[in-house]
Structure formats: structure tokens, C-alpha cells
Q: What sequence folds into this?
């Protein structure tokens, strides 16, 4: 898993927006985002794109954690709580897996563990191995 963690540290977009990968497990991942001024929208709350980017990295890591290249084919996100500061945590969990498809739920919570958003993702699994 350590090689996979190094591989995903090369995700330049996630790094650019401040997403930090914390943990990888088979079918799972955990990442965080420290909210800064650059993550706020014009209303002063965390931009939905920042929350989505956090969830998307956790999703990508979880669905690629088996060492096989997997790509998103459908995702959705529901925002349930607005924030203006603090830290967001995204935890990805694999719901189902077969040779071609994987289904994942990513819970995005605040520092108190309150739900901020819920992300659902469906990944297509290719035959290619992750180039580690």
C-alpha cells in the first residue's frame, strides 16, 4: 500500500487544492482538506468544488487500491452542511466489487464528525495494472 500512496501523491490537482491523502486500505481511503480562504465561495462557505475534489481523491484511491486501473464512470454528491472553516475528512468505503465495476460511498465530515456531504461513485475497472 505504501507504493500506491506514493503513486497518488503525484495527483497534481489534489495537491494544488490542498487535499492530503492520509490512509489507504484495500477498497478504502481517507483524505483531508484544511479549509483556507482559497476554498471559500462568494458567500463565504466552502465551495462545492473543493468538497468534491476531496471526495474524488478518496474515491480514486479506494477504487484503485486493488492495483488495477479504475476510472470513474458515474459519480454524484449531495451537500448537507455548509462550513466556513476547519478541516474536512473524506472516508471512502467499497460497497461492491466485481471484475469490471466497483461501487463506493465517500462520507465527508467536519472536525466534529458531522456529515457535510455524501459522494457515491461507480468505477470501471480496466485490465491494466497501476504503474508503480
A:
Amino acid at each position: 500500500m505504501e507504493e500506491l500512496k506514493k503513486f497518488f501523491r503525484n495527483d497534481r490537482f489534489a495537491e494544488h487544492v490542498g487535499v492530503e491523502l492520509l490512509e489507504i486500505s484495500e477498497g478504502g481511503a481517507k483524505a483531508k482538506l484544511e479549509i483556507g480562504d482559497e476554498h471559500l465561495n462568494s458567500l463565504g462557505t466552502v465551495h462545492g468544488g473543493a468538497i468534491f475534489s476531496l471526495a474524488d481523491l478518496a474515491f480514486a484511491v479506494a477504487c484503485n487500491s486493488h492495483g488495477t486501473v479504475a476510472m470513474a464512470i458515474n459519480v454524484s454528491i449531495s451537500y448537507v452542511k455548509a462550513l466556513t472553516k476547519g478541516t474536512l475528512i473524506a472516508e471512502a468505503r467499497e460497497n461492491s466489487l466485481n471484475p469490471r465495476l466497483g461501487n463506493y460511498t465517500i462520507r465527508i465530515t467536519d472536525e466534529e464528525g458531522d456529515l457535510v456531504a455524501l459522494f457515491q461513485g461507480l468505477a470501471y475497472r480496466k485490465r491494466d495494472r497501476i504503474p508503480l
About this structure: The helical segments are 2-8, 12-17, 48-64. The chain is about 25% helix and 45% strand.
